[in-house]
Design brief:
- By secondary structure, this protein is α+β, with helices and mostly antiparallel strands.
- It is built from 17 helices and 39 strands.
- An eight-stranded antiparallel beta sheet has the order 14-13-10-11-12-15-22-20. An eight-stranded antiparallel β-barrel has the order 24-25-26-27-28-29-30-31.
- Strand 10 and strand 11 form a beta hairpin.
- The longest helix is centred in the N-terminal third of the chain and has 19 residues.
- The protein is globular and about 85 Å long.
- The termini are far apart.
- Its cofactor is biotin.
- GO terms for molecular function: propionyl-CoA carboxylase activity.
- It comes from Roseateles saccharophilus.
- InterPro entries: Acetyl_CoA_COase_biotin_COase, ATP-grasp, BC-like_N, Biotin_BS, Biotin_carboxylase_complex, Biotin_carboxylation_dom, Biotin_COase_C, Biotin_lipoyl.
């Protein structure tokens, strides 16, 4: 067995590999860019080596620097994680030529299956059912349009070396095909150093289901059941679960056996994933094979009890699998939510910056450990750390394991309630809305689920809450608790002591200068026990909580049922206001005396400044292109600028016909949120 390995990656996956290596008694070497000098994986590893500047093409994608770091530190093997060089056959070959082990498949397997064009050809030769398409590299957008017409819209434009939603577009017409090809090719070149693009028919209403396989150097291959990955947004997985609520045992067995046969055909060793698109009648078609560890591997670990990273290390060290197919169990139900730094209320635009607060929910499962039926968090960040603009947007992976799917969903919703993130926006409200959707609860979904149900974007009202008045009652409870503490302060002026009231009014901010008032009556308050009876809207809430006033995460019971919520003072720059969050829903409210609420209703509303004549940057990022000049008239729908953030190109288009009056930012400039780019006449 190895005594030291190098992890050629960053973020949560680097931390994940370190956790298993430490458990196995193996020392670890981290590599990092200048942007990651204070990153968590650097702190956790036994040694760390600087690779170079922040852009991945100058650091994490430079094989020479990584191999030199391994030689320098005496590492015997390299684990590539996922992304970056994990599916680069040249890198895998070079690692082996240097006398080190590549903790992944052999380079010839990567060559055969890691390249999407080559893998489709191989699958066809092996008589595996594949989706119709054009499997040769497409060179120009004009050629792409002609090919799309022959295949028939809609089509999927995919980078051959793509992955993780990068370098992928779906086009429904010539215009989308032309623009999608260009963006797809640019993303592929920037993210993977390979701009080859191919095309295939887009199967409408599909399920995305993948089979986890594991092989050793002696030719043994097993499948570790399936993962349901159909909940996707822009082809980026959002929620994954194992097993799938859709397929039958017969389909599961057939898919697993086909995946094993395909893996054996390329002499596959290590962990890998065979992805299928599955129709409504459970017909399935080979999509691609990912010759690496998947982001969503923890859900498989939960239901099988296997540590996939450990298995990868053991296989790379030449060990034989110690179990057969019949030994692979399927225990309970696991769900993973990807917690990303993005703003769901602003069309999921990237959100970078400092994590002012970062408090994951309490966990009961460690990475790769066999504990069952609990909560696990895989992360590469910490409170006070930075979310840089140079890499992907993942903050953490939240994983739960329940005895069945209903229990897993309930555990995930509660865990999301307790996940505290401040300083950057996160997609937690969106995750909460998805989990509460009745079609998700019944398993009635496909890859078009998000596009279908949130076609107009995601809004606060899209987050259902079974009892919105509970949030108001909780705000009243916290305010009453604060008043009790204020009343106990010594040295108060005689005759002017803080008086404890029973009647309040909760003023809920609805935005745009609008609000609604909810009279509250709070009685039977037992400060020492953290208990009170709150009456609002004709309902009674008996709330018990010993959480402190400065705690963001509030735990307790309401009418005997446990709850986890978040509350903080100073919302909307109002020192008296509270922001209460629960079940994905967030409200801003101020709890006042009845007379103060009456007077506040008379206060004038100050409207925000008019920015309709400005093109504002919707995210922090790099302005890579300006498509307009001063004096130019731009038609509605035409592009104005392109911003690159977190390895994705984001096109800003005109919403209406406009004339450019002034250019306020230059290409190559790093933009902040809401920074003006153009001014219109």
């Amino acid at each position: 067995m190895f005594t030291k390995i190098l992890i050629a990656n960053r973020g949560e996956i680097a931390c994940r590999v370190i956790a298993t290596a430490r458990k196995m008694g193996i020392q670890t070497v981290a590599v990092y860019s200048e942007a990651d000098k204070d990153a968590r994986h650097v702190e956790l590893a036994d040694e760390a080596v600087l690779l170079g500047p922040a852009p991945s093409r100058e650091s994490y994608l430079v094989a020479d620097k990584i191999i030199a770091a391994a030689r320098q530190t005496g590492a015997q093997a390299i684990h590539p994680g996922y992304g970056f060089l994990s599916e680069n056959e040249d890198f895998a070959r070079r690692v082996e030529e240097e006398g080190m082990a590549f903790i992944g498949p052999k380079h010839y397997s990567i060559a055969a299956m890691g390249d999407k064009i080559a893998s489709k050809k191989l699958a066809n030769e092996a008589r595996v059912s594949t989706i119709p398409g054009y499997n040769e590299p497409i060179l120009t957008p004009e050629e792409a349009v002609e090919i799309a017409k022959r295949i028939g819209y809609p089509v999927m434009i995919k980078a051959s070396a793509g992955g993780g939603g990068k370098g992928l577009r779906v086009a429904f017409n010539d215009k989308e095909c032309f623009e999608g090809f260009t963006s797809c090719r640019n993303e592929a070149r920037n993210s993977f150093g390979d701009d080859r693009v191919f095309m295939e028919k887009f199967v409408e209403q599909p399920r995305h289901i993948e089979i986890q396989v594991l092989g050793d150097s002696q030719g043994n291959v097993v499948y570790l059941h399936e993962r349901e990955c159909s909940i996707q947004r822009r082809h980026q997985k959002v929620i994954e679960e194992a097993p799938s609520p859709f397929i039958s045992e017969a389909t599961r067995k057939a898919m697993g056996e086909q995946a094993v046969a395909l893996a054996k055909a390329v002499k596959y060793q290590s962990a890998g994933t065979v992805e299928f698109v599955v129709g409504k009648d459970q017909d399935f078609y080979f999509l691609e094979m990912n010759t690496r560890l998947q982001v969503e591997h923890p859900v498989t670990e939960c239901i099988t009890g296997l540590d996939l990273v450990e298995q990868m290390i053991r296989v790379a060290a030449g060990e034989t699998l110690t179990f057969k197919q019949a030994d692979i169990k399927r225990d309970g139900w696991a769900i993973e939510c990807r917690i990303n730094a993005e703003d769901p209320f602003r069309n999921f635009l990237p959100s970078t910056g400092r994590l002012v607060r970062y408090q994951p929910p309490e966990t009961s499962m460690a990475q790769g450990e066999p504990e069952r039926f609990g909560v696990r968090v895989d992360t590469g960040v910490y409170e006070g750390g930075e979310i840089p603009m140079f890499y992907d947007s993942m903050i953490a992976k939240l994983i739960v394991h329940g005895k069945d799917r209903a229990e897993a969903i309930a555990k995930m919703r509660e865990a999301l309630n307790g996940f505290v993130i401040r300083g950057v926006s996160s997609n937690i409200p969106f995750q909460a809305a998805l989990l509460a959707h009745p079609d998700f609860a019944t398993g009635n979904f496909n890859t078009g689920f998000i596009a279908q149900h949130y076609a107009g974007g995601f809004k606060a009202e899209d987050v259902p809450h079974a009892d919105p008045l509970f949030l108001v009652a909780l705000g009243g409870f916290i305010r009453r608790k604060a008043r009790e503490r204020e009343a106990g302060i010594s040295g108060q002026l005689r005759g002017h002591e803080v008086q404890i009231e029973h009647d309040y009014v909760a003023v809920v901010n609805l935005g745009g200068g609008k609000s609604e008032q909810h009279p509250l009556h709070i009685s039977e308050f037992a400060g020492a026990l953290g208990e009170a009876r709150v009456q609002v809207g004709g309902r009674d809430y008996r709330i018990v909580s010993n959480s402190r006033l400065n705690d963001v995460r509030i735990t307790g019971t309401v009418n005997g049922q446990p709850f986890t919520a978040q509350a903080e003072r100073g919302a909307a720059k109002n020192p008296l206001a509270y922001r209460i969050q629960h079940g994905g829903r967030s409200v801003e409210l101020t709890v006042l005396s009845p007379r103060a609420a009456e007077l506040q209703a008379l206060m004038p509303y100050k409207a925000p400044p008019d920015t309709s004549k400005l093109l504002l940057s919707p995210m922090p990022g790099l302005l890579v292109h300006l498509a307009a000049e001063v004096g130019q008239t731009v038609q509605a729908g035409e592009r104005l600028a392109v911003i690159e953030a977190m390895k994705m190109e984001n096109i800003l288009s005109a919403l209406q016909d406009v004339k450019v009056a002034e250019i306020l930012a230059k290409p190559g400039e790093s933009l902040s949120v809401d920074q003006p780019i153009l001014r219109f006449a």
